[in-house]
Design goal:
CATH topology of the domain at 40-180 and 208-237: Muramoyl-pentapeptide Carboxypeptidase, domain 2
Radius of gyration: 23 Å
Helix content: 25-40%
CATH class of the domain at 40-180 and 208-237: Alpha Beta
Strand order of the largest sheet: 2-4-5-9-8
Number of strands: 9
């Protein structure tokens, strides 16, 4: 009888150890899978039907010069909260004759990792003349144009510009998307984003270009988005729902 009880006790301990181990593995898997959960995201075009998409990282027309890892389709995704706020921006600007063009929205962590590999390869300068002519790759990293983590991976950040609905052309912002340099700063050229005052200090940047940037910036901020100091096209939802989660599921059309 004592031997049987001892055998039973040992068996129970072993089973407990196995179950505990399974729970640990399951817990670790759940933590990993959290970054692959797209259930709280939407296709932006489902929420903002008249938005124009030019997803640069699906193409080769970007600062890397290649399609970026994780971009399986030329679509734009965001959290539902961010997309709803962007719809409010779109409705606001449509009244003034503008629609939105999106260059990038949700960006998987695998894409950010691709950027980092590019930044570390000093021999790859094929796009230097078009996106960072006055900077080294080290300076691109130090200037935080490329970082180890991106707000885009949290799902509530968007890169965009404005299109004139009458002409179908982009507004002149005085610079292109993903230009790494001071020309991309919202306050470049003598403009003050806080007072909207402009005193031209660069003959290549004028008041119309500054005003166009401010039209976009003001509309985004009215509807809960925060601007970035060094990129006129970049905005993050202030009350983003996932401030600590960097998602990694691929960019492709979400099917519910």
């Amino acid at each position: 009888m004592n031997k049987y009880r001892l055998f039973l006790a040992v068996g129970m301990l072993m089973a407990c150890a196995v179950l505990t181990g399974c729970k640990s593995v399951q817990s670790a898997t759940q933590v990993k899978d959290k970054t692959m959960d797209s259930s709280q995201f939407v296709n932006i075009t489902d929420v903002v039907p008249d938005v124009i998409l030019e997803i640069r990282y699906f193409s080769t027309y970007n600062f890397v010069g290649a399609r970026i890892d994780g971009y399986e389709e030329p679509v734009a995704l965001m959290t539902r909260q961010a997309a709803d706020s962007l719809r409010a921006v779109s409705d606001d600007l449509r009244y003034h004759g503008y629609c939105l063009k999106i260059y990038d929205a949700y960006r998987p962590q695998r894409a950010v990792d691709h950027f980092l590999r590019w930044a570390l390869d000093e021999t790859d300068t094929i796009t230097k003349a078009y996106f960072y002519p006055r900077l080294t790759k080290k300076q691109v990293f130090e200037g935080e144009y490329v970082a180890e983590k991106s707000g885009h991976s949290r799902g509530s950040t968007v890169d965009l510009t404005l299109v004139d609905m009458l002409t179908g052309k982009e507004l002149d912002m005085g610079g292109t998307f993903d230009w790494f340099g001071i020309e991309s700063h919202p306050d470049y050229g003598g403009g003050n984003p806080e007072t909207l005052e402009f005193q031209q200090v660069d003959p290549n940047f004028n008041s119309v270009q500054f005003y166009n940037r401010m039209v976009l910036r003001s509309a985004m901020m009215r509807h809960g988005f925060l601007p970035l100091d060094n990129e006129w096209w970049h905005f993050r939802l202030d009350n983003e729902p996932f401030p600590d989660t960097y998602f990694n599921f691929p960019v492709r059309t979400l099917v519910r």
